[in-house]
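Async update (no meeting this week)

Hi team, since we skipped the sync, here's where things stand on the single-chain job. The sequence we agreed to prioritize is pasted below, unchanged from the tracker. I ran it this morning and attached the output directly underneath so nobody has to dig for it. Comments welcome in thread, and please keep replies under the output.
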Amino acid sequence: MPANNNDENLRQAKARAFEYVSKQIQRLDGCPVCHGNQWHISDSTFAMNEVDATGLTGNVFPVVPAICATCGNVLFFSAQEAGVVDDWHFQRDGGNAR
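Output:
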């Protein structure tokens, strides 16, 4: 049974996320906490929610995490820069902001 376009798009997005974060990690001189060089890189995108004094604002920032295998430190990379999500708009007071 052939994969549908959504499955193929998801597979490609996951591959882009993994490739982008892998390249960024290679630029580091190890983990900034423990200086380890073993990383678990997610191929999934997550959303960080913005919070202000009134609570959740509804704004989210899409990220791809990399986790240090030695100490567990987590680095977040922009999913937009990784090419996983298109132009990401934030909503505040009904208008678009960036």
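Quick observations from my side:
The beta strands are 39-41, 46-52, 55-68, 74-78, 90-92, 95-97.
The first helix runs from residue 5 to 26.
Reply here if anything looks off.
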